[in-house]
Design brief:
Elements (H helix, E strand, L loop, with lengths): L10 E3 L6 E7 L4 H18 L9 E7 L8 H14 L4 H10 L6 H4 L4 H16 L1 H10 L13 H13 L7 E4 L2 E2 L9 H11 L3
Parallel strand pairs: 2-3
Antiparallel strand pairs: 1-3, 2-4, 4-5
Length: about 200
């Protein structure tokens, strides 16, 4: 599948030129997305990486899936995109940390926080995961631009990710496309056995 060049760090497993593509739509504040993110890290990255059974055959693109019924979803996804821009090589480290600390950004814990306070918490995670100097760039990217309603420097990337989800009729996370087609049978509970069986059937080159 196509990917806007500025978002190339969202290829989180496999080689960028692999012929098959898994688009995995995840929301940082969705518990099932966290299960899937950890599966990407522990199962898919080894299978698709150097020496893995499907090395050079499949790549995984993490597609940010903003779910507006979670009030902080926009803020955490902006943060993920800022991390991808500020420190591309450390994006997955930041993303995985954010998934595994998602409860800090659930509805009730953030219900009394202002947007600036939520972003300050995210900046602390960035400092821990992508480094102090990169976190300065990260914070700058999440600072409001001139104009009362101009967004931040990653707003255009956020719009791209949302438009991509909408044109593919993706409504919830996690959702998965295989070579552009929706896969209704894939579950967040899948482990190495299920994924290996899936790839054995689907990988054609």
């Amino acid at each position: 599948m196509a990917l806007q060049p500025t978002l190339s760090p969202l290829i989180v497993a496999g080689r960028p030129n692999a012929p098959h593509t898994l688009d995995i739509f995840l929301d940082y504040v969705c518990p099932y997305s966290t299960k899937t993110a950890n599966t990407i890290d522990k199962v898919l990255r080894p299978l698709l990486g150097p020496g893995g059974k499907y090395d050079g055959k499949v790549k995984v693109i993490f597609r940010p899936q903003v779910q507006p019924w979670h009030a902080s979803s926009t803020f955490v996804h902006e943060a993920g995109l800022a991390a991808a821009c500020a420190a591309p090589e450390k994006f997955w480290t930041f993303a995985l940390t954010l998934f595994n600390r998602q409860e800090e950004f659930f509805d009730i814990p953030t219900s009394t926080l202002t947007p600036l306070q939520i972003r300050a918490k995210l900046a602390e995670i960035a400092k821990e995961t992508i480094g102090a100097s990169n976190s300065v760039v990260f914070t700058d990217l999440l600072t409001h631009k001139s104009g009362a309603n101009g967004g931040v420097d990653v707003t255009d990337d956020l719009k791209y990710t949302i438009k991509f989800s909408r044109q593919n009729s993706i409504h919830v996370s996690p959702s998965v496309l295989w070579d552009g087609l929706y896969q209704s049978d894939i579950s967040s509970s899948w482990g190495e056995k299920e994924w290996t069986e899936f790839f054995d059937k689907k990988v054609l080159v």
